[in-house]
Amino acid sequence: MNDQQNWIRIEREFDAPIDLVWQMWTDPELFKRWYGPNGMSVPVAELDVAVGGTRKVCMAMQSPERAMSMWFTGVYKEVSPPNRLVYTESICDEAGNIISPKSMGMPDDFPDITEVIVELSDVGGKTRMVMVHVGVTEGTAGAGGWNQAFDKLAKLAASQAGSTD
């Protein structure tokens, strides 16, 4: 056993109102526009945002050499709009069946089920987000992917907040 924490914690402030940032996490069409690291698209985002509801997300990448996709599933454990969202996350196949992280090239000790906790608060019309992903450690590809995704979320939220539609 090692003493390394088995979670990452990322704090960001978005130049957008809290209700909009909540929608970015819970509206499938908005979620698809920012989720995932650079170079990945999200062709599928099925989000039944209710306690006990399920989520299934596909991240895909197309390169000249090959196409790759990763599927994730989970269950919403806590839904308190617009402040708190808690859900589990597992690697799955296209049908939503949980598969071993090791089969997708993850380290031997990567957990089958992780937990994502998102807390949003209003800070003078902007939104402060604290996201904790239990089971993903700092310095891993997962941590880097979250930071890239949040960079995309910041740009999308700011552009949506500034739009007049």
Features:
7-stranded antiparallel sheet, Alpha-D-Glucose-1,6-Bisphosphate, Chain A, domain 4, 23% helix, 165 residues
Brief summary of the model shown:
By secondary structure, the protein is α+β, with helices and mostly antiparallel strands.
What do you see in this structure?
By secondary structure, this protein is of the alpha+beta class. It has a single domain (7-162), classed as START domain (Alpha-D-Glucose-1,6-Bisphosphate, Chain A, domain 4, 2-Layer Sandwich), CATH 3.30.530. The chain contains three helices and seven strands. The protein has helices spanning 18-26, 28-34, 141-162; strands at 7-14, 41-47, 54-62, 67-80, 84-92, 114-123, 126-134. The protein has a seven-stranded antiparallel sheet with strand order 1-7-6-5-4-3-2. Helix 1 (18-26) crosses helix 2. The radius of gyration is 16 Å and the shape is globular. The relative contact order is 0.24.
Number of domains: 1
* Structural shape: globular
Q: What is the fold named in CATH at topology level?
A: Alpha-D-Glucose-1,6-Bisphosphate, Chain A, domain 4
- Average residue pLDDT: 92
Tell me about the biggest sheet?
7 strands, antiparallel
* CATH superfamily caption: START domain
- Tell me the Rg in angstroms: 16 Å
Helix content: 10-25%
Q: Do you know the CATH architecture?
A: 2-Layer Sandwich
Tell me the β content. 35-45%
